[in-house]
Write a structure and sequence with these properties.
mainly alpha; 2 domains; 8 helices; 0% strand
Amino acid sequence: MTTNELAPDLAPSHRTVQGRDALEELVPGVPGLIDASLGELSPATARRIYEYIWGDVYATSPMTTRDLTIAAIAGLTAMGGAETNLTLQATIALRVGLQPSEVVAIIEHAATYAGFARSQAALQAVRGVLES
């Protein structure tokens, strides 16, 4: 199911389509999972993910996807409680050329600012992605 099917009364914006396509290219199937998990509950949230995060931030940043992913992993580690997003970002990190040891190093560095408990939780969250 696509965001257009989730909210048929709202035509998808260019940013929605661009963002969804960019995410699909990096992690095939993930937009479908987002649509399925948010479909009836909050189709607007799915649209915002595609429009803002992927259609604006990632599409228009002067930084590379690799650099944005490093920042996202550090930020999500510091924030805590975002294991699903952290796992997604670790998957993207590997697809854009980071090594598993680099993902671990980012999380270890974030411990300096976020604390060891959040760093440990982040390492556990990405463990499966890094070991596959």
